Amino acid sequence: MTEQRWEVPGSRFVVVEAEYPPHDDKSRRSCELEIVQGAKPISTAEEKHLRATFFAERDELLSTGRYERWNPDPIFSTNLGVRLAGHNPHGCRVVSYLDIETQRAPSFLMTGSAEQDGACGSAPRFAHP
Questions:
Q1: In this structure, are residues 62 and 82 in contact, taking their beta carbons and an 8 Å threshold?
Q2: In sequence order, what are the beta bridge partners of 81?
Q3: Which of 45, 105, 93, 28 has its CA nearest to residue 67?
Q4: Taking the CB of residue 27, how many other CB atoms lie within 10 A of it?
Q5: What is the per-residue pLDDT across 23-45, written as a single tens digit (0 to 9) for each?
Q6: Which of 25, 74, 75, 80 is deepest in the core (most CB within 10 A)?
Q7: pTM, to two decimals
Q8: b/e per residue 28-45 (b: at least 16 CB within 10 A)
Q9: What is the DSSP secondary-structure string of 36-102?
Q10: Which letter does DSSP use for residue 26 in this model?
């Protein structure tokens, strides 16, 4: 996997854009927001606020009819998702998710959007900008 990371010096968060190895000349992508290693972890109060915000945004997306509920396996203290009901222009199902762990160490936050299937996607971009 190839990735690019963007971080404002001193920020608590980093944006990670990833491109997975090509399959049949197609590569799927993801974009995530994570906590910078060594930064202050997400508190349970922040988790509660982020979860409520995600529910509100997801409900708005679901009301358009273009999205469907998609929840990852409940293995962290928060596991929420929403998925594009159809395929994007590259033929991929796209999921957006919020995963947070505040109950067990190490705590973390990971939220993002990703093309789900390795058989879909577009021509690799990172390898050929």
A1: yes
A2: 97
A3: 93
A4: 24
A5: 777 788 889 999 998 899 999 99
A6: 80
A7: 0.83
A8: bbbebebbeeeeebbeee
A9: PTTSPPPPHHHHHHHHHHHHHHHHHHHHTTSEEE----S-SSEEEEEEESS--TTS--EEEEEEEE-
A10: B
